[in-house]
């Protein structure tokens, strides 16, 4: 019952070649539920959680998220290199967008990525502006830095690229400059967000996907 | 089978420190179903039912509604104070928006709150006007004061605030002046509605959420 | 497996006070599935099937369609009067909109009614015009009178009213004049359609609800 | 676990009058899941997979896809003629749109067809233009010819017709001229796509349906 809030780095006393089963199954169940909501068409998106100070479990490349299971995670180090016993396997092409977060903030234990209709659309629509501004929504309180709806939240947008190494470095610069960042968009591609626990990453993901849909539908209304 | 219509205050002969299990499970099941429809993203929304003349069961603070269970309710009195055996626990931050209804109308047994896309959008869009007008819809007959579609229904809208005590008093004034009120919106935040039974509160919630979606989609059509 | 196509009037050799269980359960299952798609908010909509030349099973008044079961049907005659053993019970307020169809066409065995977002919207939008025109859609071939998409289909729209007896007579006149009619809208209220079997009524309902959604979404596009 | 990627022509050593059960059940499960997403209203759409060099299993005519099972496939040859033991049965009216693909490309093992809201709408909207252009979307990488989002993808659109033989020949000419084609639209009707395996056809279908919805919703936004 309930999504795990336990600090993942406590696992560091365990055998490091083993992916914690309960956590992997909990996240896999959410990945299937998010797929059913349309957040991961085709074989898009990727997900990870911290297994130790120097390693994470991340989704393998090209998996269909409608039937994602705990066996679809593999271990990599903070450079994105496959760790035993997964040497022969390939992790998500966007692995470095995960590792940069675990490297830069040891409090981060879960990183999630969606590829939704509204994330795809709005990241493209506001690319030139460089961010999407959200304010006055009660649901902004689901984000950790806010305890009121009377705030201005800016969701950064990066241009899409196939050079993931460069993108991860660009993101690192932004994150070092603005360490309270809890999410960003990649244009025509989707949303990245993270948290201290599965529960927190889920809360960020759901709040942001909801606000993206609200924002899009608000754009369609004529002013009055 | 069927949602309970029995008068909740009849429970008053029971041990008052016990939350009626069957009712709690019935409402918890609906809370999960409404979550699946997108009515409670992140950990938003809250729900309650009357347990006696001076007490109610209300959802605990910060629960994920996708897996809400009967154990996620706690007992509070009409001032919103935790009752034994729940002294150490925290009820929803919006508890006073529930208690004011049980205080002012002893026929009310269930209070529900949604945080939907259309409730969020339209409560913001019509805030200056102070209400949202709906008329000529057959589904208005699902509301207790109407037996025809040829009516004008006004759904009051309050500005959002983090001062829940003030908001509950503002609502109390409105309710005392207009005791047939069966629902209201909070801007950028969502819908509150209630009823004599779970079945009635569900009917109000579903009718209003449907009409909010219809109203939004009608706004997008050009006049012709 | 498969929805029943057997002629319902063959049941006439059975005990007429009994509602055929298998058919009732098949239709009840569909009613729950349509509810999950949003076609019957609150306690709206009603459904019936022929049990004999002079009687039908119809949904009882005020039932929640999310948990509709075979026990939620009752027997009425072609004037809409409750038949034994259901004398004390009340059938849907719109019973006469069903009986008129069974009276006028002995080939009709199932009548269904939805209360969808797009049916509510478009029946209101085109009320003055008196009908909604659909053409060039492949899915029009799901309707019995067409074997091509190159047709013009007109879905009649009646103004909403609480005088169901008058509405049923108005519909009777239309049906006698245009006996190939297979569906109509009531403004701000929803869709009625029917068929020789559950399978046929389901095909009409799904085709028309789909085309209503397509038509609405087409209206939002600028010409180009 | 996972959708089959094994080359279907390896089945050619088996008894050719038998439809491979595991493959039929896997595809049937997907057909039901796509129906639940609204991709096959009424009894629309059809699906097939290669059983041997000269034969395929294809959905029987008029089946309801909400309860499609492995028994709803039948064997036909590359001219679309029913093979034993299915001589008395009728395959989908659009069988020749499937056979042309198996004839022209022996690497194709699965052909799927959806009839979605956005496929219906956009195929009609862009008919005069003859195709729908998609570019700069990350999800274009789910299509086999692309390894970047920086591409222009053109989805061909054919006018709708009831002359399926002619349409299959028109498509054959296009396919011979442009053998990298992996999908096309028929106006007011829907999408055809295919692949070497169920997994690949599913990836194409989901990526294209997602991009159709994104494209439609982008058309509604005012330029800024």
UniProtKB/TrEMBL annotation, chains A, B, C, D:
Keywords: Amino-acid biosynthesis, Lyase, Metal-binding, Methionine biosynthesis, Zinc. It is an enzyme of class 4 (lyase). It comes from the Bacteria. Its cofactor is Zn(2+). Residues 25-216 form the Class II aldolase/adducin N-terminal domain. It catalyses: 5-(methylsulfanyl)-D-ribulose 1-phosphate = 5-methylsulfanyl-2,3-dioxopentyl phosphate + H2O. Pathway: Amino-acid biosynthesis; L-methionine biosynthesis via salvage pathway; L-methionine from S-methyl-5-thio-alpha-D-ribose 1-phosphate: step 2/6. Catalyzes the dehydration of methylthioribulose-1-phosphate (MTRu-1-P) into 2,3-diketo-5-methylthiopentyl-1-phosphate (DK-MTP-1-P). NCBIfam families: salvage_mtnB. This is Methylthioribulose-1-phosphate dehydratase. It comes from Saprospira grandis (strain Lewin).
């Amino acid at each position: 019952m309930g999504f795990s809030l336990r600090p993942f780095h406590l696992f560091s006393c365990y055998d490091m070649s083993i992916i914690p089963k309960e956590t992997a199954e909990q996240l896999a169940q959410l990945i299937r539920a998010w797929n059913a909501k349309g957040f991961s068409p085709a074989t898009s998106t990727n997900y990870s959680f911290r297994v130790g100070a120097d390693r994470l479990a991340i989704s393998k490349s090209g998996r269909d998220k409608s039937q994602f299971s705990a066996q679809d995670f593999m271990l990599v180090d903070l450079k994105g290199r496959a760790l035993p016993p997964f040497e022969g396997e390939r992790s998500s092409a966007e692995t470095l967008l995960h590792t940069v977060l675990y490297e830069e903030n040891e409090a981060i234990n879960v990183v999630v990525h969606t590829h939704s209709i509204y994330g795809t659309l709005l990241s493209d629509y506001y690319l030139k502006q460089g961010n999407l501004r959200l304010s006055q929504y009660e649901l902004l309180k689901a984000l950790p830095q806010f305890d009121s709806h009377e705030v201005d939240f800016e969701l950064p947008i990066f241009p899409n690229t196939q050079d993931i190494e460069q993108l991860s470095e660009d993101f690192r610069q932004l994150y070092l400059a603005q360490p309270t960042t809890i999410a960003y968009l990649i244009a025509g591609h989707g949303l990245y967000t993270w948290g201290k626990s599965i529960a927190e990453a889920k809360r960020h993901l759901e709040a942001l996907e909801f606000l993206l849909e609200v924002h899009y539908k608000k754009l369609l209304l004529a002013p009055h």
